[in-house]
Write a structure and sequence with these properties.
Low-confidence stretches: none
Mean pLDDT: 94
Largest sheet: 8 strands, antiparallel
Number of helices: 2
Helix content: under 10%
Distance between the termini: 30 Å
Structural class: mainly beta
Oligomer: single chain
């Protein structure tokens, strides 16, 4: 697994004309619903007037983001490291580094990490939080 690549994201930075935010300064948050899932909120609704949000996601080995729907957000996943499976609108998609997946609003989806865990870059339009 290329966890080193994920660590480059984990310790990277967001650079915009308004300034730079070091990811080291952003803490990890336990997902309020799904055990073994943590989020690092890179940019949120308050920064984008609700237009979009970006999040690093760590899913512990053999843990899951269970089936759910976002009523208003299109969600994308970019797999950085680890492996797993996404059930996107009833279809099983293998998750491995380099895979990008898109879940339109109102589409049921879940993500299941494999034995080495799963590391994603998730984006929401409009913002999730």
């Amino acid at each position: 697994m290329n966890k080193e690549l994920f660590e480059q994201f984990n310790t990277g930075s967001l650079r915009m004309p308004e300034g730079e935010v070091s990811f080291n300064e952003i803490g990890w948050n336990k997902h309020p619903t799904f055990e073994g899932v943590e989020l690092k909120h890179i940019i949120t609704s308050k920064d984008t007037d609700g237009q979009f949000s970006y999040h690093l996601v760590r899913i512990a080995p053999n843990k899951s983001i269970k089936n759910h729907i976002h009523e208003t957000q299109l969600e994308t996943h970019e797999v950085i490291a680890g492996s797993g499976m996404c059930i996107n609108n009833g279809k099983s998609l293998i998750y491995e580094p380099g895979v990008i997946s898109i879940m339109p609003a109102k589409v049921p989806h879940e993500v299941n990490a494999g034995p080495e865990g799963l590391y994603l870059f998730a984006k929401f339009f409009p913002a999730l939080c």
